[in-house]
């Protein structure tokens, strides 16, 4: 995956410090992860290529003279064809299919063409997967929570352990998400994640205030994938 994180060592320090500070007032354990992209989307690229190829086949069927003229031009006017043969249909369709797939290797174009619901679903799936590996059931009080940012999709997710889910409605995290995305948009991703962490810490401190019996069980540092 191409690196588009734009996170500097200073950003890492800002986020890590924000986590450490937030956890001083709560038993909640905040994990922060940033990644360039949540999926390769190779299947989407192949699907788009297939759609382009089928569209091209339809156009060839509706306007065969255009392609006959191309063949005649390539043969110097000596093709002798009055109708498109099957090999020509296959060749033109294959060129559209593989040509489109080759162009979509360029990730900026591919990401423009991916429907937003697919991006949203892939980011959520990756966030949940990383939560299960890094956070889920790894704290005594089931108070782990993951803040996940996927840069190329311009999306973020918050995934919480069962104790937090039982007390905090998902909509409560909306302000933290908005604050982060606004700052990421203007080129301040470190500050954005730090502000989200700060607001998450306020919510967590209300429901899970700091006690002496809860050690620091998860890393405070920003994890960059």
Any chance you could write out the topology, listing elements then pairs?
Elements: H1 9-22, E1 29-35, H2 42-62, H3 64-74, H4 86-103, H5 107-113, H6 116-134, E2 144-150, E3 155-160, H7 162-167, H8 174-185, H9 189-207, E4 223-224
Parallel strand pairs: 1-2, 1-4
Antiparallel strand pairs: 2-3
Helix pairs in contact: 1-9, 2-3, 2-4, 8-9
Concise synopsis of the structure shown:
This protein has 225 residues and is an alpha/beta fold. The protein has 9 helices and 4 strands; from the N terminus they run αβαααααββαααβ. It has 2 domains: 9-39 and 115-224, Diaminopimelate Epimerase, Chain A, domain 1, CATH 3.10.310; 42-112, no CATH class.
Structural notes for this entry:
The protein has 225 residues and is of the alpha/beta class. It folds into two domains: 9-39 and 115-224, Diaminopimelate Epimerase, Chain A, domain 1 (Roll), CATH 3.10.310.50; 42-112, no CATH class. The protein is 56% helix and 10% strand. The chain has helices spanning 9-22, 42-62, 64-74, 86-103, 107-113, 116-134, 162-167, 174-185, 189-207, and strands at residues 29-35, 144-150, 155-160, 223-224. The protein is elongated. The chain starts with 8 loop residues before the first helix and ends with a strand. The mean pLDDT is 84.
What is the name of the CATH architecture of the largest domain? Roll
- Helix-strand topology string: HEHHHHHEEHHHE
| CATH overall fold name of the largest domain | Diaminopimelate Epimerase, Chain A, domain 1
Helix content: 55-70%
């Amino acid at each position: 995956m191409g690196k588009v994180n734009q996170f500097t060592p200073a950003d890492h320090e800002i986020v890590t410090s924000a986590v450490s500070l937030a956890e001083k007032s709560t038993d909640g354990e905040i994990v922060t992860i940033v990644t360039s992209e949540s999926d390769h989307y190779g299947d989407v690229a192949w699907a788009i290529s297939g759609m382009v190829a089928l569209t091209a086949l339809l156009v060839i069927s509706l306007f065969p003279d255009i392609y006959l003229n191309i063949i005649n031009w390539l043969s110097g006017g000596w093709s002798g064809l009055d109708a498109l043969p099957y090999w020509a249909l296959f060749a033109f369709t294959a060129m559209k299919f593989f040509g489109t797939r080759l162009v979509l290797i360029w990730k900026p174009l591919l990401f423009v063409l991916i429907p937003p619901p697919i991006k949203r679903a892939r980011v959520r799936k990756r966030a949940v997967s990383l939560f299960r590996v890094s956070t889920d059931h790894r704290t005594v009080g089931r108070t782990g929570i993951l803040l996940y940012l996927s840069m190329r999709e311009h999306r973020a997710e918050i995934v919480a352990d069962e104790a937090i889910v039982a007390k905090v409605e998902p909509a409560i995290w909306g302000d933290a998400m908005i604050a982060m995305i606004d700052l990421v948009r203007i080129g301040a991703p470190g500050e954005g994640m730090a502000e989200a962490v700060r607001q998450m810490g306020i919510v967590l401190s209300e429901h899970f205030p700091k006690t002496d019996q809860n050690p620091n069980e998860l890393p405070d540092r920003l994890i960059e994938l």
